[in-house]
Each structure stands twice: as structure tokens, then as C-alpha cells.
Sequence to fold (243 residues):
Amino acid sequence: MTTTILRAGLTALATATVLLSGCTGSGNAAPPAATPPASPSPTGNGFATMTADEIMTKALEASAAARSYHVKGTSAADEEMGAVTMDIRVAGDDLAGRITIDGTAEMELLAVGGKQYFKGNEAFLVSALGAEKARTMMARAGGKWVAVAGKDDLSGMFGIADIKKELSPKGLPIKGAVTQVEGTPAIILSDNLSDLQIFVAMTGEPYPLQVLSPGAGERFTYSEYGATFPEITAPAADQVANP
Fold:
């Protein structure tokens, strides 16, 4: 799901001529396996008597109440895109972080106060736009943030760190084994129509801790719920590219 959103964003970037004509400024390896099951049945947080749907609802409610979290992880290379690494901090509708493709192409995302911005290094822009358009973009952006108009299709890429989207199974959730995610007991919720696995904390708040999709080589972890992230700050006006 993450790479699907990213592909759509890259396609939009390649065709978004508004970004090239000027930007308005403003203030295939499978992921590592989880720790083997530590218990044959779920306990804690009342999960033993809950259905998978009820646990999923609790997880979504807990993450929504926290409002902020840190998501990071990887998606293996496929026929259309290289391996993707994501490291993003989210606070409500705002976010700040970095996406890396094949270890060299990097894109920074920043959304704050209803405005969205991005930066891409040379490798990223050449990959997305081609050499000629990349040179044009780099010359006009000058290393500054590029503002994204809300009407642009590129804007949709900022949903890449949306935890609710990542926790949306194609089918029905199924309760699975109990395991641990970085020392925290967690119950696995599986999807009956895909290989999606969601790991929900069984102690403390029922936060989603990890999402796996072995078929897509995806492994993303969620942490720092409720934290304040000072890096999510609007760029200074002179750090945003102008027409």
C-alpha cells in the first residue's frame, strides 16, 4: 500500500508542469521476521474476550487519540520501483520526514499548517523527472523547499504515513498468535484476503506497533505515540522556492 501511494506521487511529480514553471512560496527480500510467539493465546488489555474487529477498533481509537507517532520501515524492490525506506514523524495533519529509494534517491516531505512542501536530491529528481527536467527543477528550487498546491495530484503522496490506511485490511481481520515487538507483548491481526499482519500492543494503550506485508517485502514500525516533534515546523519564507 505504501509503495502504491509513492508510485502515484512520483507519476504526479513527473507530469506536474506547475512545479517546473514556478512554485509559490509561503511562511524483493522478505522483511525481518517478528520475534517468535511467546504465548499460545492472547492476554492483557482484555483482548482474550474481544473479536479481531473489536481489537482493530481499539487500535485505531488509541492511535487517533495519541495524534502523533513515528513511522519507519522498508518496502522491498519490485518490477517498477527500487527498495523504499521511510522515516516520518506525524502530528495530526502535519508531518516531516524522508523517503529514500535504492539508498541514493532521497525526498524530504514537510506538511505543516495545511501547507505541503518537498525537497528532492539530484538522484531523486532525475529518477522522477528525467535529467533535463531535473536540472530545471534544481535550478529553480535552489535547494529550497518546493510548495505543493493542494489541487496537485502530488499532494496525495503526503498520505503515505497515514496509519489508518495502513491498518485497513482488504478483507476481515483474524486474531492470531501473541508475540513481541521490541519487548512489548503484541497480538497479531491477520487479513483473510491478503498477507497483511498488524501487531497491536497488549500492555498499556493498544497502539499498533508494527505492520508487515511479507509478499510486498514491507515492514513498518510505529512508535513515539503522543510525542511532540519540533522538526515539524513551517520553513522560513526565504527557504521556500518562489516563481
Observations:
- The first helix runs from residue 2 to 15.
- Confidence is low (pLDDT under 50) at residues 17-42.
- Residues 2-237 form a domain with the outer membrane lipoprotein receptor (LolB), chain A fold (CATH 2.50.20.20).
- The first strand starts at residue 35 and ends at 39.
